[in-house]
Amino acid sequence: MPRKRKLLAQLSAVQSNTSFPQMDALEKLSTTPGADPSPKSSKYFVIEKKNSPQLQADFFDQPCVSLAKSFLGQILVRKLPDGRELWGRIVETEAYLGGEDEASHSKGGKQTQRNAAMFMKPGTLYVYQIYGIYYCMNVSSQGEGAAVLLRSLEPLQGLDAMRELRRASRKAPTKLLKDWQLCNGPSKLCQAFGIDKAFDQRDLTQDAAIWMVPGQDPPGEQDVVTTTRIGIGDRGEWAQKPLRFYLRGNKFVSVLDKKLEREMAARGHSPCS
After folding, report:
1. Are 76 and 193 in contact (CB under 8 A)?
2. What is the pLDDT of the chain when averaged over all its residues?
């Protein structure tokens, strides 16, 4: 059985009964009468009804760079108000190291009302707004003010709902988004998963609307591209530090470092994703 199909065949839904406030866009996501109520999934995704363990506090309690790498291949799960679940495999992350990191919101150890989640226990969501309209989602790690940005997901389950959420967040009429376009960027994945500022400071180990479950067959070092972060701008040496990590050969990644991938291929490293 192909590795990817084996991965997805072993995933299962995690049940939760707790509700949370609904956003306007989410209220429109109701099942059409007479239609198949099951969410559209990736062609590789097969649901098996058995318990799937949720990632617990000890997983998140690790240094920032280590956590950023460990996230690759894990599954982010979002439960919508109507009970449907969205599943996405994490394929790209960035590490922000706290006070010493000139590109971090917590540089210099500065703690504000906006970035308070970066100083909370590992596994806490830090959601912030950019350009006044988009959101980005991070997860706190070990280290004062350190957090990992979730940059891209590979959609696995609930793709139709993701398209509805993306469409609701876009003002002008657009073409139907392809699977790889749904979550290939930090703001895109927040739109597709219905994530906004209301999710800031939530605990991934306790929340009923969002959590993570383990992926199958964690990637090896030869499967991970380590390169510079995106959109850092003029941050001196920090703009060049290799703090972005993604699964090589995965088409759902936002920005590829093709030169580095060619160098890895020349050394005989074959991607498995």
Report:
1. yes
2. 85
